[in-house]
Design brief:
76% of the residues lie in helices and 0% in strands. The protein has 90 residues and is mainly alpha-helical. It has one domain.
Length: 90
């Protein structure tokens, strides 16, 4: 995965973080999402992030956002970043 794809994913994950912390989501959901974001950050910090691992984490984030209409923009940004990096939704 090239550095531009990694940067796009990082930006999308920051948008997800901002969206869930500025919108009225359940605090349990926010805690779960923050845990997934931490795992994504750790994987992206590796010299060669594993696409399958990222697919698991990022797909989890997408599922969490999909049902929340006020996180639509963050969902779209994450979906685009995954698609551009060749990471499938699972």
């Amino acid at each position: 995965m090239d550095s531009a794809a990694v940067d796009d994913i990082r930006q999308a994950v920051r948008a997800v973080h901002k969206a869930v912390h500025t919108k009225k989501l359940d605090s349990c959901d926010i805690d779960d999402i923050d845990e997934v974001i931490s795992a994504v950050d750790l994987e992206l910090a590796r010299p060669h992030p594993n696409k399958n691992t990222l697919a698991t984490y990022l797909s989890s984030l997408e599922r969490s956002l999909r049902a929340e209409p006020h996180t639509h923009d963050a969902y779209g940004q994450l979906d685009d970043a995954m698609r551009n990096a060749g990471i499938p939704e699972i």
